[in-house]
Amino acid sequence: MNNSDKVEILSSDVSSTGSSSRDSSTFDDVKQLVADKLHAAAETIQSKADENRQSPIAGYASTAAGWLDDTSSYIRNADSQRITSDIQNQVRRNPGRSLLIAGAAGLLLGVLIRR
Question: What mean pLDDT is predicted for residues 78-89?
Answer without folding.
Answer: 87
